[in-house]
Design brief:
The chain folds into three domains: 255 residues, Bira Bifunctional Protein, Domain 2 (BirA Bifunctional Protein, domain 2, 2-Layer Sandwich); 131 residues, Alpha-Beta Complex (YbaK protein), CATH 3.90.960; 105 residues, 3-Layer(aba) Sandwich (Rossmann fold). It has 13 helices and 31 strands. Strand 30 and strand 31 form a beta hairpin. It is globular and about 90 Å long.
């Protein structure tokens, strides 16, 4: 491909509204063009990378025995009503009507449709095990699209679904997909971490995520370097705080003017934040009110709270509601003198803490030396606390490490979550009719593009692994008006294509600096520079990943590069 004829236009300036390094580099490198918030167009070089990612995924899925299908983007609401997810999935579900008033959704995932496809054709265990997969555009109405392809509203995804006679067989399929995912990410050169995860809106009995650690990850994971335990932070259980042994002091009401934050109160009373009881009043969608009590030095994990409430439809009470219901203001909310219909939950972090500072629902006043059990009755203890660095590992008791993570793959053991309500039944080997046991397995294809850039870049730009690079080799003619340079570069370009190399020839009438900057920005693994040394029969090879630059004889350059490329792909 000649760059002068290729639809590839890089930007000179840094994109102003991009935060994640992958978002910045993919925009600046001319791989993406934004259509609207969370919606992007892929230019030819980006599509080449995506196709290479897809091919690796397809090869490993086919190797595992899975068969490719292509499901519809539009899903009729009747299917989602059968499983209850039409109402349960949440606001991320794009809903629409056709001209006849029939309701549909844009598929964010395809459990319902694949189950419907299965039940229309299969009713016997003899057709099992079966794994079907697709690579398809998906849609989610993200509340806050961020970081380019990391959290977008329209994205490319591979999703697979397994069907088995029983749970034992389903676990074999599950482990088969887990192994396939390990091979896929290894071939994509992505350093992933396998973590236990929540089943979330998909449902089921068990799930795992394949993630990479990055500052721009949307999730938080915890892992133990001592025993190897790893999990999404939202499912890491935290035990009750160890009961303190200090002497209980008399409770006392004190004046605490304008101390509306934990930090201000801690500074005013000269007490550590963990000695302060923080009260958060939540309102569910059905109007139920719940007060969550947690230590002042910890935060509530709303994903844990969502699992506890059984819904994502809840919010913090407003200033007006706090005043109306409790007669106080934000910062002075506490568990004293509450209306009877407000349920109180105590996070495990509050257990056994002595001589606490607690608000009493009166502006500018707090109690000090409050000892739950003596001065106020404990309620139900729950685990809704965010995991922090140094918290105890639930497996070995060691100290947990915590980091931001980007989910690339997610696998679920669904059980009969979909087959039972949708009556996807089979007759087993004993002639008994029962719901088929399912699993589902997703990989974010477009998100993998961002993940690769997150892991492979430097201050100059992207450093694509050879297996997914838009082009394996970039040949640069430094001065297109120099007949010798142009002749050598043209010859190398034609020969490279004959050798089967994936090559782009930068024949643009631009300055050398412009071409060099684009070559490093766009992430070509190997760059052949045809410059002044061409008159002496030499070219310069740049190895993007190592930064090494070496002179080669023109006739030796392409065989040497091909050998390097083949080695990279092993």
């Amino acid at each position: 491909m000649r760059w002068s004829k290729y639809f590839w236009y890089t930007l000179k300036e840094e994109p102003a509204d991009a935060e994640a390094i992958s978002h910045k580099l993919l925009l600046k490198g001319g791989f993406l063009s934004q259509v609207a918030s969370g919606i992007y167009e892929y230019t030819p070089p980006a599509l080449k990378v995506l196709r290479k990612i897809e091919n690796i995924v397809r090869k490993e899925m086919d190797r595992s025995g899975a068969q490719e299908v292509l499901l519809s983007v539009l899903n009729p609401f009747e299917l989602w009503k059968e499983t209850g997810r039409w109402d349960l999935y949440g606001r991320e579900l794009f809903k629409l009507q056709d001209r006849h008033g029939r309701e549909y959704c844009l598929g964010p995932t395809h459990e319902e449709e694949i189950t419907d496809l299965f039940r229309r054709f299969i009713n016997s265990y003899k057709a099992l095990p079966l794994i079907l997969y697709q690579i398809q555009v998906k849609f989610r109405d993200e509340k806050r699209p961020r970081f380019g392809l990391i959290r977008s509203r329209e994205f490319l995804m591979k999703d697979a679904y397994s069907f088995d006679e029983d749970e034992f067989s389903a676990m074999i399929s599950y482990e088969s997909m887990k192994f396939a995912y390990e091979r896929i990410f290894k071939k994509l050169k992505l350093n992933t971490l396998l973590v236990e995860a929540s089943v979330g809106a998909i449902g089921g009995k068990m799930s795992h995520e394949f993630v990479i650690l990055t500052d721009y990850g949307e999730a938080k994971v915890a892992f133990c370097e001592n025993c190897g335990y790893s999990a999404n932070a939202e499912i890491v259980p935290l035990p009750k705080h160890r009961e303190e042994t200090e002497e209980e002091k008399p409770m006392e009401k004190v004046y605490t003017p304008n101390t509306t934050t934990i930090a201000m109160l801690s500074d005013y009373l000269k007490v550590p934040a963990y000695k302060i009881l923080k009260a958060l009043l939540y309102v569910k969608g059905n109007g139920e009110r719940v007060m969550v009590l947690i230590r002042g030095d910890r935060e509530v994990d709303e994903k844990k709270l969502e699992a506890l409430f059984g819904t994502e439809d809840f919010r913090l009470a407003s200033e007006e509601e706090i005043k109306q219901w409790l007669g106080t203001t934000k910062g002075f909310v506490g568990p004293f003198n509450l209306p009877e219909d407000i349920k109180v939950l105590w996070d495990n972090s509050t257990y056994g803490v002595k001589n606490m500072v607690v608000a009493l629902n009166e502006p500018d006043y707090h109690y000090i030396n409050v000892n739950p059990g003596r001065d106020i009755q404990y309620g139900e203890f729950v685990d809704v606390c965010e995991v922090e660095e140094g918290d105890p590992c639930p497996k070995c008791g060691g100290s947990l490490r915590v980091g931001k993570a980007l989910e690339l793959g997610h696998i679920f053991l669904l059980g009969t979550r979909y087959s039972e309500p949708m009556k996807a039944l089979i007759k087993d080997r004993f002639g008994q009719e029962k719901p088929v046991v399912m699993g589902c397995y997703g990989i974010g294809i477009s998100r993998c593009l961002s993940a690769i850039v997150e892991q492979y870049h430097d201050e100059k730009g992207i450093k694509f692994p050879t297996v997914v690079a838009p082009f394996e080799l970039n040949i640069i003619c430094v001065n297109t008006s120099d007949e010798t340079q142009r002749s050598v570069a043209e010859g190398l370009y034609i020969k490279a294509m004959e050798m089967g190399l994936d090559v782009i020839y930068d024949d643009r009438d631009e300055s050398p600096g412009f071409k060099f900057a684009d070559a490093e920005l766009c992430g070509f693994p190997y760059i052949l520079v045809v410059g002044k040394k061409a008159k002496d029969g030499k070219v310069e090879l740049w190895k993007r990943h190592t930064g090494e630059r070496i002179d080669l004889a023109v006739e030796d350059a392409l065989p040497y590069v091909k050998e390097l490329i083949e080695k990279d792909k092993q």
